[in-house]
Each structure stands twice: as structure tokens, then as C-alpha cells.
Design brief:
Shape: globular
CATH topology of the largest domain: Immunoglobulin-like
Strand content: 35-45%
CATH architecture of the largest domain: Sandwich
Order of helices and strands: HEEEEEEEEEEEEEEE
Length: about 190
């Protein structure tokens, strides 16, 4: 009697597990979980956290300045390897509300604390720094993932304009007042 109950229980659990796994796919497409900026976004053995976003009109100054086609968009993030083997954090992609995809730039020259384009993360290690895109100012989701596990997640990046501050002298007296940095003309 006890063996029959055990077998029936195992059969029921197996059936429930199959139904749950089938319900998470629609037409063969896996549902990609969504997270907010600041939340931990696990994708396979990698965990991504986006801390900050910043739009910048150019990188550098003078004749050597890098000018974007649209705007440079920096994301400060961390990538944690929660696995027991080394992982490669693949290049990341921004997706706008219409589904258009933008790849991160391969050249981080002049980007403060750039974490590189090809990133190896040792077990139980964390990479923290900036990645950069050249994109129009819009609302985006950052697609992150672990290509080895084929697991993906989306991180919602709200549209905001955080700019650097520059000091501009006021009228007589020479005191300065912080003012938003001017945006480069399009």
C-alpha cells in the first residue's frame, strides 16, 4: 500500500513538473523575465545589476573628441558569476519599445571604468564598471544573458537625462554656480 502511494505521488509530481515546464513556453519561445534597474537579474550563472545610466554628448574634448552618431549612453553595472566555472559575459544589447536592437560599442576608449567588450568572470567573482552604446534618447530594456546556458533577462532602463555639472561664473564677484552641461547639437 505504501509503495503504491509513493508511485502515484511520483507520477503526479512528474506530471505537474511537465505541465509547469510547458506553460512557461509559448510556441517554443521561452518567457524572458523582466527586472528593474537596481534589481538583481539572474541569467544562467551570471547575475547582472544596473546601478546607473548616463547620457553624454561626446567623449573627450577638442580635436580628439569622439562624437556619437546619436548620443553616448553609459550604463554602470556589475556582473556576478554565481557558478563554479569561469563564464564569459557576452556583449549586451539595448532594445527600444519598437523592438529595435542596439549592440554595445566595442571601443571603450575614453570611457571611465570601462569593463571591456569581452569579459571573463571567474567563479564567485564580480566585474563592475561601465559599458557604452551609441543610441537615440529613448526608453530601453537591456538584454543580458549567459550564452553558455542560453538564459536571458531584461532590465528596464528608464529614460532620464543625468548630465555632468560644469561651473559657470556668475555676474560680478566671480562666484560660480553649477549648471547642467550643454548637450552637443545633433
Amino acid at each position: 500500500m505504501g509503495l503504491v502511494r509513493l508511485l502515484v505521488s511520483l507520477a503526479v509530481l512528474f506530471t505537474v513538473a511537465i505541465l509547469i515546464s510547458c506553460s512557461s513556453t509559448a510556441g517554443g519561445n521561452t518567457v524572458i523575465p523582466n527586472y528593474s534597474m537596481g534589481e538583481r537579474a539572474p541569467a544562467g550563472q551570471l547575475i547582472f545589476i544596473v546601478f546607473e545610466n548616463r547620457w553624454i554628448p561626446q567623449i573627450g574634448a577638442g580635436t580628439t573628441a569622439r562624437i556619437p552618431a546619436n548620443r553616448f549612453f553609459l550604463l554602470r553595472l556589475s556582473i556576478v558569476n554565481s557558478g563554479s566555472t569561469e563564464a564569459i559575459a557576452p556583449p549586451l544589447t539595448l532594445i527600444d519599445d519598437s523592438g529595435q536592437r542596439f549592440q554595445e560599442l566595442t571601443d571603450g576608449d575614453g570611457i571611465p571604468q570601462w569593463i571591456g567588450y569581452l569579459r571573463r568572470v571567474k567563479p564567485a567573482d564580480t566585474l563592475t564598471g561601465n559599458i557604452v552604446f551609441d543610441v537615440p534618447a529613448r526608453h530601453y530594456k537591456l538584454e543580458v544573458g549567459d550564452d553558455a546556458d542560453d538564459k536571458k533577462a531584461l532590465i528596464d532602463i528608464p529614460l532620464s537625462f543625468n548630465t555632468d555639472q560644469v561651473n559657470v561664473p556668475q555676474a560680478p564677484g566671480g562666484t560660480t554656480t553649477p549648471m547642467p552641461a550643454p548637450l552637443a547639437p545633433k
